[in-house]
Design brief:
Length: about 375
């Protein structure tokens, strides 16, 4: 990855991890508080129930004149009975001071419930239930939440890394396409520019222009203009361009004449059969459409081959005897920056422009291609 891609990758990764961790912390805190409240309520009602049962035993023992029996309580609960004069008559008291009123307290890691339900029967004023089970339960809960959050955080980090890679994959592909496109354009520009330079140098040395020199200059200039037209359409195509009713067969003849020198240089024979056909489309875009198809056909055709073009019953056909397109590439030839073959250069936008223009003006396009035999495109206007 280049520096820009790394910056994008780590920015996405950091944003995802930070936002996920913040959300995880909120969820963890909410879960801990909810469970803590539930445990506190459970402990409160548990201690209250124990003191209520013990108070009932005290009252019944007093009323029946029987001996107060020892009440079985859970191992994590300690009972204490406080007399009316403020002394502990039974059990063990965790509080530092004798309670002066009923209530629910927390002290020294213990939950303490003081009940005045005995109403001084058997001279007992308070029943006190004490337990440190809640503190231990909260410690276990906190440990569970922390370990759970750590595990989820690790999982989120892994997911973030994978998602960041997936996020960067199309960016990487697009960067590679652009880099390849720039390289291809540079290569495509180099050929006509070199040819122009050589032709002009020859003309200067000879102090005159031969027909061959002028032809080379013309071909090179047209190649540069074709590249310019394609790049202009890609970057500045305007949906508001005004369409006009045209005889597409006349525009085809102009395009064939435009590419005649290039056909002659490769000794490609051109067969044309047309009939007048009207269609509403901007002339510049129709020429660009024809130009890309004809230019490709010439580029990928061998010397001394035949190029056949026709317009009949609203169908434009262009058939070459070139290298053809391999079957595994045929599904992607209309995609931008996709090339059907590495043969004879190109920068992978010609057919995408053709498809774009066809889609814009409702022209159906089909093709049949056989490797090493040729390709035929049909446009249904």
């Amino acid at each position: 990855m280049n520096d820009l891609e790394k910056k994008s990758f780590y920015s996405f990764l950091g944003l995802y991890i930070v936002s996920s961790f913040l959300f995880l912390m909120v969820i963890g805190y909410w879960y801990y508080i909810a469970q803590k409240n539930a445990l506190e309520n459970e402990m409160h009602y548990k201690l209250q129930h124990i003191t209520d049962v013990k108070s009932g035993d005290i009252i019944m023992s007093h009323m029946q004149g029987t001996v107060l029996k020892k009440m079985p309580v859970p191992k994590d609960v300690t009972l204490a009975l406080i007399s009316s004069d403020g002394t502990v008559v039974d059990g063990k008291l965790i509080l530092n001071k004798i309670p002066k009123k009923a209530g629910y307290f927390h002290q020294n890691g213990y939950e303490i419930f003081v009940s005045d339900a005995p109403r001084e029967h058997l001279n007992i004023k308070y029943v006190v239930a004490q337990s440190n089970a809640l503190s231990k339960a909260l410690e276990a809960l906190l440990s569970l939440v922390v370990r759970g959050m750590a595990l989820v955080a690790l999982l989120l980090a892994i997911i973030a890394w994978v998602l960041s890679k997936l996020f960067m994959k199309p960016v990487r592909q697009k960067v590679e396409q652009i880099e390849r496109f720039i390289n291809d354009v540079t290569h495509e520009l180099n050929t006509p520019i070199t040819s122009l330079s050589m032709a002009t140098n020859q003309a200067l040395k000879a102090d005159k222009c031969t027909k061959k020199t002028l032809t080379n200059i013309s071909i090179s200039t047209k190649q540069l203009y074709d590249i310019y037209s394609s790049l202009t359409y890609l970057n500045f195509s305007d949906n508001k361009v005004i369409a006009e009713a045209l005889d597409i067969s006349e525009v085809l003849k102009q395009s064939i004449h435009y590419y005649a020198p290039l056909c002659e240089s490769k000794r490609i024979k051109v067969e044309v059969e047309t009939e007048p056909t009207m269609f509403t489309i901007p002339q510049a875009q129709l020429k660009l459409l024809y130009g890309n198809l004809i230019g490709n056909a010439i580029k990928y055709s061998p010397a001394n081959s035949t190029l056949r073009l026709s317009i009949k019953e609203g169908v434009f056909s262009i058939q070459d005897e070139g290298i053809g397109i391999e079957e595994f590439n045929q599904k992607e030839i209309f995609k931008k920056f996709k090339r059907g073959t590495e043969y004879s250069g190109g920068f992978g936008v010609g057919l995408s422009i053709v498809k774009s223009i066809c889609d814009r003006y409702g022209i159906n396009i089909t093709f049949v291609s056989v490797p090493n035999e040729g390709t035929e495109f049909k446009l249904y206007f």
